[in-house]
């Protein structure tokens, strides 16, 4: 048996060239339909200039289902209504209350109304 030696081994050229995929076969009925992504800013924020995020440290407000590391979305443009959760300033300290017109409230400065509480599930 005779062997031919031709020098260096050449690399094999790639058969697949990276490019935009080409459609083969019948088109999908769903190619024209594309669902829009969910933008949490448009869903959760009503007034961007008056909205703030606060991360909670500690479990002092667990009676309102607000726990350590939760994120509160607070809108300062909202009016306080019956049953609303609100961030207030009382004696120079931030606090959270559930507003009630029936109950006598000590004097406080309203900082903003809590619109959403974001909790991690892990």
UniProtKB/TrEMBL annotation:
* Peptidase S24/S26A/S26B/S26C domain sequence ranges: 22-102
Pfam families (UniProt xref): Peptidase_S24 (PF00717)
Say which species the protein is native to. Christiangramia antarctica
Protein name (database record)? S24 family peptidase
Give the region (Disordered) as residue ranges. 1-28
* Family matches, as InterPro entries: LexA/Signal_pep-like_sf (IPR036286), Peptidase_S24_S26A/B/C (IPR015927)
């Amino acid at each position: 048996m005779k062997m031919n030696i031709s020098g260096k081994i050449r690399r094999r050229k790639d058969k697949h060239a990276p490019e935009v995929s080409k459609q083969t076969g019948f088109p999908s009925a769903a190619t024209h339909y594309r669902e829009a992504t969910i933008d949490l800013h448009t869903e959760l924020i009503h007034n961007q200039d008056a909205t703030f995020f606060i991360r909670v440290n500690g479990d002092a407000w667990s009676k309102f289902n607000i726990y350590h590391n939760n994120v509160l979305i607070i809108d300062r443009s909202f009016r306080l209504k019956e049953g609303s959760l609100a961030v207030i300033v009382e004696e120079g300290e931030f606090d959270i209350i559930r507003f009630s017109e029936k109950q006598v409230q000590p004097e406080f400065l309203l900082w903003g109304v809590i619109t959403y509480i974001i909790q991690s599930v892990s």
